[in-house]
Amino acid sequence: MLNILKSRLIKGVVTRTIEPAQAQEIAALGAELESLIHKRFRRSLAIREVDTGSCGACESEIIAANNPIYDLQRFGIQFVASPRHADALLVTGPVSRNMLTALKSTYDAMPAPKFVITCGDCALDGGVFKDSYYVAGAVKAILPVTLHIPGCPPSPLSILRALVAFLKR
Amino acid sequence: MDRTDVISTLKNKLPGVELLSVAQPYPDELRIKVEARHFKQTCLALHTFLPSPIMMQFGSDERAAAGCFTVTAVFVHIRSAQWVSVTVDIPPGAPGFDSLSTTIHSASLFEREIREMFGIEPRGNPDLRRLHLHDEVWPQGNFPLRKDFRQPQPGALSGYIFTRVEGDGIFEVPVGPVHAGIIGPGHFRFSVAGEPIINLELRLGFTHRGVEKLFEGKTCADAVRLSECVSGDSCFAHSLAFAQAAEKICGATIPAQAAYLRAIFLELERMYNHAGDIGGMALDVGFSFPAAHASLIKEAILQLNEQLTGSRYLKKVNAAGGVAADMAAAKRALLLATLKRLKTDFQELVKSLYASASFMDRVDTTGVLRRKTARDLGVVGLVGRAAGIPTDLRRVFPGVHREAQFKMALQESGDVLARLRVRVFEFEESCRLIETFVGKLADGQTTGVEPQLKAGSGLGYVEGWRGPVLYWLKIDSAGLIERCKIVDPSFHNWPGLAYAVLGNIIPDFPLCNKSFDLSYSGNDL
Ligand code: SF4
Asked: Looking at the domain assignment, is residue A2 inside a domain?
């Protein structure tokens, strides 16, 4: 353990695996995001994620957005365990018929004011699964959607960019 | 035992069974056809003497061409490196076949799937509950994989009956489908007596989105893209298995350069997932430093993927006939340099885990899946190797892996620690494999051929990071897909998780679950 701590201290902050230009962009976007969240949400934006039939890559990227490179949490974004603590619902995947009820009850469990974000092409209109017999329709036909983050899957950086652009509006 | 021996042994064991036809369309596929009344006997014989679990079992609606449904069970014969399939014709009036599930456990889920998708009854299967089409939302009597299915017709809805455990002090703890983390949906119902779990029932299917039906009528080029969306952490393994099935049918031989590139990407996919899971296991016991460290390794590989192919998840890389882009010298150098750094980082990660007594205490003897149970359930891939089942398709069908003297991971104890050790071994082995394959790449080679369209059927298979990913594909004379059956290793392994957690406490469930890390979307299709 001591060895590891020592090596950590020598290596310092781990932005070494990314390009300096990208690191700068993350830092700049993050600063902007932080001040926007501070202004509009009084310090923190709490997000509850719901997978309504995604392939899993969208989740993987949302998780990556919380790794030490992007670390959305330091800018004031928290992914919360309960819809009762959430300001926003983040939906991934086409809506499988099996998830329709769960999606609606998760939304209903959130306190107002609340809003819905869709993440990934599937969540916009079903994406590659649009024509399936088991897709219940686009999220926006079921819940009021305020922001869509495009991509298949959207990278952590594009999630960050989309959030900043949206909060600036 | 070689190829012909499979047939002669089968004939010896089953004197009363007439083999209607025996065909070897490809060197690695042996196809047997029997009468429906001999289906069970034949499968049981193959199951015991090959020996093999049911690797896949599926129905097909051939009513338009042949006037019947068919059901096929596929086994793998490791010694002769071939897939042995048994097919029966099933007449359309009140279709059914004799269930294998009371003897071969690995058939049970497949039979339930065939029943809900085609309306073909597995006679004698004690559990007929639907898997993917939930009774609460999908009316009875609608069979989506039948060719004449258009829209669901109204019909009776019902509910799902969970297994009930009764007795003094038994509590039921239902969890999901929406979980606390950023993770796919599934319903877990624990029955506990005090702390220990005495039964876990999994209800999945929440991400069912009709994938197999969506394949039908597509061209191979479109279908490759769809296969990348079946299980998002195995985009490459899935598109590769699909592409190999298509290439087999078309008789296309891919250039050596493409074979090496595919092997490299397959190993990169394994590496980022293994690193992510090792971090996940650390996180689930609250050991956050190595978890963060592992997530950086995963991120580094995702970024490397993007630099090499333009996609973090290796999408749009595979095509039927080869790979879309070559890897120039500069990229090869980048790959090798990154690997070198990752290896050091990874060793540090592993050291920090193995050196922590409290971490080791949590993973050692937790979530044990015994070899016997694993074999009985037909568990495959990584989880199987951690329980002492020495099977890896990279060894059975080595291809280019032979040139790299591939070494298979194997553990005996079947606990969380064993699954961790398999991952550690495989991560390091993948590094070594990639280094070997990069050395075989050359400049200015072609990386693909244009496949000539041909009607036919074939099996594509890949050892993805979880285990074997299988695609059984049938293409019609217009080059469109008639039927595509997909088996993700998760489908075999979810029942294994339900056994591994028995006797453990619920707080250890996330850890056990992470050590399996099965796909919801790959299972639910
Ligand atoms: S948008 Fe793409 S990555 Fe996201 S769930 Fe759909 S297929 Fe998967």
From this structure: no
Residue B408 confidence (pLDDT) above 60: yes
Q: Cβ separation of A93 and B300 shorter than 8 Å? A: no
Asked if B229's CB is within 8 angstroms of A152's CB, the reply is: yes
Window 247-276 of B, Cβ < 8 Å to A? 276
Q: What is the ipTM of this complex?
A: 0.90
Say if B207 is an interface residue toward chain A (CB within 8 Å). yes
User: In this structure, are B116 and B217 located in the same domain?
Assistant: no
Stretch B464-483: mean pLDDT? 93
A83-122: pLDDT as tens digits = 999 999 999 999 999 999 999 999 999 998 999 999 999 9
pLDDT at A22: 81
In this structure, the number of other CB atoms found within 10 A of the CB of residue B507 comes to 11
Q: How far is CA B285 from CA B179, B253, B297, B352, B363, in A?
A: 17, 48, 19, 14, 9
- The Cα–Cα gap between A19 and B77 comes to 48
Three-state SS for B249? helix
> How many structural domains are present in chain A?
1
Question: Could you tell me if B234 and B101 lie in one domain?
Answer: no
Per-residue pLDDT, B176: 79
Instruction: Report if residue A64 sits inside a domain.
Output: yes
Question: Which helix (H) or strand (E) element contains residue B85?
Answer: strand B82-90
Q: What whole-number distance in Å separates Cα of residue B54 and Cα of residue B72? A: 10
**If you search the block for the tokens 């339900």, which residue do you land on?**
B498
Determine the Cα–Cα distance for residues B62 and B147; give it in Å rounded to an integer.
8
pLDDT value of position A10:
57
Among chain B residues, the shortest Cα distance to A67 is held by B295
Q: How far apart are CA B246 and CA B455, in angstroms?
A: 10
Calculate what percentage of chain B has a pLDDT beyond 70: 99
Global pTM exceeds 0.90: yes
β-sheet with B468-475: strand ranges across: B456-463, B468-475, B481-487
pLDDT at A15: 42
CATH number at residue A146: 3.40.50.12280
The number of domains in chain B is 2
Nearest CA in chain A to B214: A132
pLDDT single digits (tens) B105-132: 889 999 999 999 999 999 999 999 999 9
Q: Does residue A86 lie in a domain region? A: yes
